[in-house]
Structure to design on (1108 residues):
């Protein structure tokens, strides 16, 4: 028996051990800590604002917790019925005006302070004015992928977006217009900003301002149907020169090498062209724009790595990777499929 | 049975001799009953049954999420599971349980013989039962286009336009809508019944200021049901019109508004969670004083605070919509109202502490659950304040932090107090005590499991894990947390199993309770256990809030001090 | 045991308590008001937001006679109930019948208006947002009129059979309260749809 003020039975001790064991057994998780989308690791101006007010609220509520939980523990210990209790009822106290006034007023004041602080941050983030140096993006949510357009730059891409960093006093935030083509989605990249919904028939807006180059992970934050779980987001924050290089590359016309002309024919001949755009104008947006497919690191809205083998497997049977996906199984012959993949892998 | 000689005084009650009671006869008696005690028990058994079903759904969810990229349950089935889990727990567990306890206790506590409209009472119960049947019939009824069964998979709050015919093919959404619609009518009927009972059938001497707190709180809850369930009814009628008559309420392609559904739903949804939690407050306000051996501290303020909660909670709904793109003014308004509602809620915790202060605490099983309730409701309220801070909600909304918060309320506060209420009033309803030993095992196992699962979820949310995802990537760092969450479920299941064993064994072999096993003070303990069908041999007259205290302490009665 | 516990007759309770029927009906009215309020909110929210199709001004005509009939039925039902309270069952039956006729005319008038809108103007619930909110709000009200009329007809049948007596005044009063509520809702619907909306 481990003896404290209250005796802890052995089974409780073993219970505590069981809590630690799974961790040890799993050997911890091998993850890159810079990728974990923790909201307490803000790396963008609005995320910092949120984190600061969150810290203040946490301190306040933490303080309240310590006081009240402490009182609870004290009461439970101090006023427990002793073994030698005489059975007489304790003095009956029906209330106390001053005490009740005090514990009404103090919480009220705390709430006033919290709301004032919060109101300020809401305004700071929501009503921020867009500087001239900002990059404009339009994000349109689909079931279950992200259409990303840069109207002023004339770029269309999908699922992976590139934005410039704001470093060394030079601000280059990105302002996003959020729309939806079907149901309600939500754009959530925790390290960069809280989530804002993409609501059909409504235009919302948000802004991000990454402060270091690198990859920021996110995903759809509102249930939007079968494959909500795999509507993933990748935001690449680039140094200015890298961002410009990326923009230039995206603006290039689609690759059209004669060696893969057969594959291009497959693309145009079968139903692919009904949903996907490659290098053209047009409004066929049921599926992502594929013009620069090979410039992306993932396929299927982040569900798969971008490799020829996985691309082939995805086209052959999308249902296998994302059950319920709206892209139909095309039932292409093996040779058609090979040609198509050869064409698609040429789209840098 | 006691008082057989008095039965002749009350017309229409002719007890049958024991040998006439076959199983079929007993079954029939329960099926056609309009007695509030039987209906109350039926509601409670119904609710506890669905608690098990909803718990199974949760268990499957947790096992699918125990590690990244598992293929134990596919997305279609998973999405149905979390939809059914949420819908079941709110509408088929929460509502029936609160109405069950109200049904059983309110007439006994106010010295009445039944509810105001006994047949309406039965009607309300059977409507609720029909609602549950309709919802679960979806598993075998209507066809969906994509796969596994056809239970609804739109989430328990069924956002538009995901529920439009275009995005929810088949009839699963219709079963969701109809099941809840029908159940909602039952809730409104029962709420009206309880209000009428409380207003019109209190015994002599029991003015409003002398009602037990449980009765006061139920009066407020039922008022809220009338006002809050109706918006959901209206919204569901609109949804049905959209899906069947081609109207455009939430049809965004024709200019309809997805946000309008959210407003209507949450105008119901937020008061609904207070409707579910205030009965937990009611149980705490009866149980904590008895096991502290003191009167409740600050009765008038407790009533006032609950009225304030009811009133303010009608004005906080859009804190579920901070991410939807309201203006900064709109967001700020709801921050203010939401944080304000924390004040009267917090006051109640202080009043319960004040009740325990200076008392002589007895740690019987009902009290253990009540103390855990205080601790957990405190945390739930504080994470609620965190979520009320809109910028932080932009991060935490629809994440596992949110799930942790509302499960702290729904399980940590409400389910814990349901357990407390079961241990406290089971002796009254059955005449036998539940085993204290098994009760303590139940408590500790469930407590450990609860904290393992839901404490950990807070951290998963902070690490950016959204809700309603059937799997997650390995590179997010959520694996260990999910593992711990799932292990906690095993302990909770163990706790509930032990409670079931306790109940079943004690029904036959429990220690006889007598009319007042806890040395309590309200009217239900003045009659036999179980009470006769007519509740009281003679309707009592009261002079204070604790009539039995007055009887037990003739030199120091309450009415001298109230 | 059969379900015939005697719970209707109140034992000597503490002082005055309100009538159960009135409290119960008031609860129902509160709940129904909340439902109507949501439909009214939807109506006001979508005013002017229809993408196409007829506007209220183009298709709606003020239902003056309808409204007069329905609102005066509130007066006639009051007369009937007062008569019953005094014990004058004949007067009660007469004015009760008048109420039913007035209510029935209202339904007929609404049906006529809808017939004109649907078949002559081609304006249905599917046409646009205005159609959606118009038919649902007015239809919800009309449904409640139907339910009320069914209740009134039931009482009429009892009255004609001679079963309605002075001691039933309280209960009939409860039904009258429902009817007043239905009329009250019409005032709101009329204002929102035909005055504000146009």
């Amino acid at each position: 028996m481990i003896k404290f003020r209250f005796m802890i039975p052995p089974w409780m001790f073993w219970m505590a051990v069981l809590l630690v064991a799974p961790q040890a057994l799993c050997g911890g998780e091998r993850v890159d800590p810079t990728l974990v989308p923790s909201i307490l690791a803000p790396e963008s101006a609005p995320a910092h604002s949120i984190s600061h007010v969150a810290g203040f609220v946490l301190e306040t509520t933490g303080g309240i917790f310590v006081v009240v939980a402490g009182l609870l523990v004290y009461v439970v210990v101090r006023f427990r019925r002793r073994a030698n209790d005489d059975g007489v009822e304790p003095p009956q106290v029906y209330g106390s005006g001053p005490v009740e006034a005090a514990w009404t007023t103090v919480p009220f004041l705390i709430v006033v302070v919290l709301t004032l602080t919060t109101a300020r941050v809401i305004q700071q983030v929501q009503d921020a004015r867009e500087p001239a140096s900002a990059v404009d993006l339009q994000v349109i949510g689909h079931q279950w992928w992200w259409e990303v357009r840069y109207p002023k730059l004339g770029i269309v891409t999908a699922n992976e977006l590139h934005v410039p960093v704001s470093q060394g006093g030079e601000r280059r935030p990105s302002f996003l217009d959020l729309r939806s083509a079907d149901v309600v989605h939500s754009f959530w990249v925790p390290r960069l900003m809280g989530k804002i919904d993409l609501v059909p028939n409504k235009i919302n807006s948000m802004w991000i301002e990454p402060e270091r180059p690198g990859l920021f992970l996110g995903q759809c934050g509102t249930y939007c149907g079968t494959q909500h779980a795999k509507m993933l987001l990748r935001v690449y924050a680039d140094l200015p020169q890298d961002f410009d290089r990326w923009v230039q590359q995206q603006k290039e016309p689609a690759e059209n090498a004669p060696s893969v002309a057969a594959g291009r024919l497959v693309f145009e001949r079968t139903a692919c062209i009904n949903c996907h755009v490659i290098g053209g104008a047009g409004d066929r947006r049921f599926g992502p724009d594929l013009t620069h497919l090979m410039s992306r690191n993932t396929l299927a809205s982040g569900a798969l790595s971008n490799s020829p083998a996985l691309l082939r497997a995805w086209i052959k049977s999308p249902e296998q990777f994302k059950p319920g996906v709206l892209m139909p199984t095309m039932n292409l012959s093996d040779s058609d499929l090979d040609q198509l993949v050869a064409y698609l892998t040429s789209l840098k | 049975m006691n008082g057989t000689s008095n039965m002749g005084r009350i017309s229409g009650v002719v007890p049958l001799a024991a040998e006439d009671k076959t199983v079929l006869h007993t079954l029939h008696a329960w099926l056609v009953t309009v007695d509030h005690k039987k209906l109350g028990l039926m509601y409670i058994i119904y609710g506890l049954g669905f608690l098990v079903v909803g718990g199974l759904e949760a268990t499957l969810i947790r096992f699918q999420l125990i590690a990244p990229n598992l293929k134990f349950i596919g997305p279609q089935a998973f999405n149905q599971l979390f939809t059914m889990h949420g819908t079941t727990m709110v509408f088929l567990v929460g509502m029936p349980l609160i109405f069950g306890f109200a049904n059983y206790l309110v007439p006994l506590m106010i010295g009445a013989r039944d509810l105001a409209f006994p047949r309406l009472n039965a009607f309300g119960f059977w409507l609720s039962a029909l609602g549950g049947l309709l919802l679960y019939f979806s598993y075998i009824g209507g066809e969906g286009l994509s796969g596994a069964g056809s239970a609804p998979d739109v989430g328990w709050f069924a956002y538009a336009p995901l529920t439009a015919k275009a995005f929810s093919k088949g009839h699963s959404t219709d079963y969701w809508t109809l099941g809840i619609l029908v159940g909602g009518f039952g809730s409104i009927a029962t709420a009206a019944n309880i209000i009428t009972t409380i207003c019109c059938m209190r015994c002599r001497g029991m003015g409003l200021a002398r009602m037990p707190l449980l009765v006061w709180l139920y009066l407020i809850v039922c008022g809220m049901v009338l006002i809050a369930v109706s918006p959901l009814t209206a919204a569901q009628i609109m949804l049905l019109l959209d899906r069947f008559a081609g109207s455009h309420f939430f049809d965004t392609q024709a200019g309809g508004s997805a946000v309008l559904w959210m407003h209507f739903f949450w105008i119901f949804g937020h008061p609904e969670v207070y409707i579910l939690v205030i009965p937990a407050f009611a149980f705490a306000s009866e149980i904590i004083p008895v096991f502290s051996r003191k009167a409740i501290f600050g009765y008038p303020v407790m009533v006032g605070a609950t009225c304030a909660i009811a009133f303010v909670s009608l004005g906080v709904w859009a804190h579920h919509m901070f991410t939807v793109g309201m203006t900064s003014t709109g967001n700020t308004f709801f921050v203010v109202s939401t944080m304000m509602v924390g004040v009267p809620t917090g006051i109640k915790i202080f009043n319960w502490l004040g009740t325990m202060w200076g008392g002589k605490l007895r740690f019987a099983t009902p009290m253990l659950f009540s103390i855990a309730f205080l601790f957990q409701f405190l945390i739930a309220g504080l994470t609620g304040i965190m979520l009320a801070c809109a910028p932080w909600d932009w991060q935490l909304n629809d994440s596992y932090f949110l799930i942790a918060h509302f499960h702290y309320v729904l399980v940590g506060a409400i389910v814990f107090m349901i357990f407390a209420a079961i241990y406290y009033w089971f002796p009254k309803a059955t005449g036998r005590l539940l085993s204290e030993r098994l009760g303590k095992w139940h408590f500790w196992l469930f407590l450990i499991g609860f904290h393992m699962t839901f404490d950990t979820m807070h951290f998963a949310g902070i690490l950016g894990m959204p809700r309603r995802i059937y799997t997650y990537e390995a590179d997010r760092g959520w694996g260990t947390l999910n593992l711990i969450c799932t292990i906690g479920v095993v302990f909770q299941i163990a706790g509930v199993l032990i409670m079931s064993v306790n109940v079943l064994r004690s029904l036959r072999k429990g220690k006889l309770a007598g009319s007042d096993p806890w040395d309590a003070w309200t009217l239900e303990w003045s009659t036999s256990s179980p009470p006769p069908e007519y509740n009281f041999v003679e309707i009592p007259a009261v002079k204070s809030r604790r009539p039995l205290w007055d009887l037990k302490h003739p030199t120091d009665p309450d009415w001298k001090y109230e | 045991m059969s379900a015939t516990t005697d719970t209707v007759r109140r034992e000597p309770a503490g002082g005055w308590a309100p009538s159960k029927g009135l409290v119960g009906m008031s609860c129902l009215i509160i709940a129904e008001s909340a439902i109507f309020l949501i439909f009214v909110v939807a109506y006001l929210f979508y005013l002017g937001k229809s993408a196409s199709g007829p506007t209220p001004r183009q298709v709606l005509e003020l239902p003056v006679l309808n409204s007069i009939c329905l609102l005066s039925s509130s007066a006639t039902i009051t007369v009937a109930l007062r008569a019953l309270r005094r014990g004058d069952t004949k007067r009660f039956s007469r004015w009760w019948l008048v109420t039913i006729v007035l209510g029935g005319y209202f339904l007929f008038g609404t049906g006529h208006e809808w017939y004109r809108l649907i078949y002559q103007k081609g304006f249905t619930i599917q046409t646009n947002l205005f159609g959606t909110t118009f038919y649902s709000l007015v239809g919800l009200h009309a449904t409640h009129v139907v339910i009320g009329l069914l209740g009134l007809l039931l009482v009429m049948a009892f009255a004609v059979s001679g079963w309605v007596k002075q001691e039933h005044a309280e209960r009939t009063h409860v039904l009258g309260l429902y009817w007043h509520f239905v009329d009250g809702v019409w005032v709101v619907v009329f204002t929102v749809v035909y005055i504000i909306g146009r």
